[in-house]
């Protein structure tokens, strides 16, 4: 395609003007980078450097006194040999899976119903988002009282209904469900509000046409709502997976950092780095593994949203 | 009249009873699920520990001790922690806004060489889950490269990493991109410098996006837990969330005092929500639609 170069009329180049232009371009760039300087510094020091440092750390043994020593895959080996490694991944995946049922599908159903109501919409939006505004630790501590197997509110409710009581966070069977319930209560408002925004943007004519064709409400959901919501459903799915796989605060506060029934990947990283051993190498190796898994999801998410905008 | 949705008005009018039943049972369910726990927290604080320990809970407090709130305030030193949290939140907000607005303005309007590379590098950090960088970020803050500063237990440990917010830069840049260059050019002819153009032309036009970024910066700072837990280990520097987590269930305070502490810690953001509900929910909705 480069064969047809447009012929420019020969123009006398005044060197002074050219020099002026170059000068201005340099001045513009200097100005721009002055505005960017603080941002570059913050990103460089606290985002880009930690990424490099984290990868280096995963392959080093560092006692912070002498020079760090390169140890190859020793840290990864140590992490893989830790019996808690697989437990933490199993628990994390269980949390993510359960959270998809409770925190992803339930808000979708709730949003569809709220969107059809003609009254109290402001109240529903306010109420469902209220827990999102609480500091997460407040929510978790409050629920810690509710879950108390001795005189917590939940067991009191169960026994009032003549149902068997539960150990909640202290029962190996119920502990992950208990964590997911708090987490869902605290976070489902965000998903609900976003679903509501998506539902409000579906063109009414589509439902009109479906109704004229005699489609029942269920068929309208199946053939109009779901396809129209496909994008937002996918985006929230990825966001939810990435967020729930980093779950920390619920297991940390409710069950501590040593309970094998509820230890998650993030809690294990915290445990390696900040409890007894201060083994930053193992923590970094575990972080790299988590990063690889989550990075894939994040990349898909960014591609989707960039394409849409 | 808004456009129709899944179920048309006439369909709805044919089933008035069903509609009422669904509406009111959902309203009841929402009160029970989302409002009642907060009622329990606020009223739990005025009950005696004895009443709280009863096997059958009391819906309305039998004992009435509002002074528990004052006791909790004193024993938990909530004043200090609320002050810390507010100070960190406002400082963090100012840093985020200053650094990110300047960066977004440079990338959107001054468009320097390698600007796209810089933007790409910043946006790439959105792909990094915060969790994966936790440990190296902590070590960086403990010993900042080149400067060899230890920022632990100082506000800078929250403010500086918080200012590196790619999402803000992305949102702000997209907004600035829509401001026509001609507006800036005509200001330039009038002799305005780059900073004055930003201050007098760009920022006044960007009030809506600045409001949304600000609200979410404050809320985010208030809700943050894991990062402050790591970098603020000196109790006197802690945020209210970190302090409550440290003081809960260690026998230092009674359950009713803890309920009071939890309620006090919730008030600021609940008030923010009540006041800015529209901006918060519509900001979230806009984010959902644009991705």
Automatic annotation (TrEMBL), chain B:
Q: Which domain of life is it from?
A: Bacteria
**Alphabetized InterPro entries for the sequence:** MetI-like, MetI-like_sf
- Where does it reside? Cell membrane
The yes or no answer to whether the keyword Repeat is present is no
Q: Which GO terms describe its biological process?
A: transmembrane transport
UniProt keywords, alphabetically: Cell membrane, Membrane, Transmembrane, Transmembrane helix, Transport
Which Gene Ontology cellular component terms are annotated? plasma membrane
Name of the protein in its database record: Sugar ABC transporter permease
Q: What is the lineage of its organism?
A: Bacteria, Bacillati, Actinomycetota, Actinomycetes, Micromonosporales
